[in-house]
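Hi support team,

I've been running sequence recovery on a batch of backbones for a student project. Most finish fine, but this one hangs at about 90% for roughly twenty minutes before it completes. I'm not sure whether the input is malformed or the queue is just slow. I've pasted the structure tokens below so you can try to reproduce it. Let me know if you need the job ID as well.

Thanks,
M.K.
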């Protein structure tokens, strides 16, 4: 049975959603705040998350950001925020779909079915292993040539984006959008200095004397050297 995680702080709506989804054949777990959502996300490893944005404590934006550090599972935002700007922000932040409240139950089920059809079976492969590098999402760290390296949030997200695109050049503009959430492409120097700091963290070159895993492509961007 396919597992779903519903994150909704309104207990009545949360119960209604769980009832609808259970009747549709899903196995649903419910979280009423952001911290509980992240605990259940890691413990249950659901196939899809339905996420409200207005949550107590850790809000939906932070839940979405941390979710993307661990998994590529589909995320459907279900929110009372109806403006086009909010929908665009949600999709750019990593959500796969955005549905506003109030909503039609059949439309919700159809959107969930569509997202599950497109999801990848390896979406929960949390530890990326490539050329002596292993990323550990739950600790926001990396193991490079056998040594664990603690990273800042920006350093972790930067390395994560490069590793996920291993072997391909990621432009400076793309990095600004994905790592710094700066889609207008301003702040190119931030990328340059963040890459320099990350190189220092990785020791410049591997402990075995191999090539620097981060390659600069002049005038374009950066690439993680895959196998």
């Amino acid at each position: 049975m396919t597992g779903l995680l519903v994150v909704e702080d309104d207990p009545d709506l949360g119960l209604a959603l769980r009832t609808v989804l259970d009747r549709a054949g899903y196995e649903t777990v419910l979280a009423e705040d952001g911290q509980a959502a992240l605990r259940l996300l890691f413990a249950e490893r659901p196939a899809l998350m339905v996420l409200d944005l207005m949550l107590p404590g850790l809000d939906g934006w932070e839940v979405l950001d941390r979710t993307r550090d661990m998994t590529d599972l589909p995320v459907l935002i279900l929110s009372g925020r109806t403006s086009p700007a909010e929908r665009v922000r949600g999709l750019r932040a990593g959500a796969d779909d955005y549905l506003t409240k109030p909503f039609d139950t059949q439309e919700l089920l159809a959107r969930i079915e569509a997202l599950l059809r497109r999801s990848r079976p390896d979406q929960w492969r949390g530890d990326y292993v490539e050329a002596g590098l292993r990323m550990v999402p739950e600790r926001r760290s990396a193991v490079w040539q056998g040594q664990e390296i603690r990273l800042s949030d920006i350093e972790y997200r930067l390395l994560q984006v490069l590793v996920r695109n291993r072997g391909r050049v990621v432009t400076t503009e793309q990095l600004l959008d994905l790592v710094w959430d700066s889609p207008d492409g301003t702040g190119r120097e931030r990328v340059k200095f963040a890459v320099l700091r990350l190189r220092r963290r990785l020791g410049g070159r591997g402990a075995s004397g191999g090539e620097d895993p981060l390659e600069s492509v002049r005038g374009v961007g950066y690439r993680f050297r895959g196998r």
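--
Follow-up from support: It reproduced on our side and the slowdown came from queue contention, not your input. Confidence is low (pLDDT under 50) at residues 205-209. No action needed from you.
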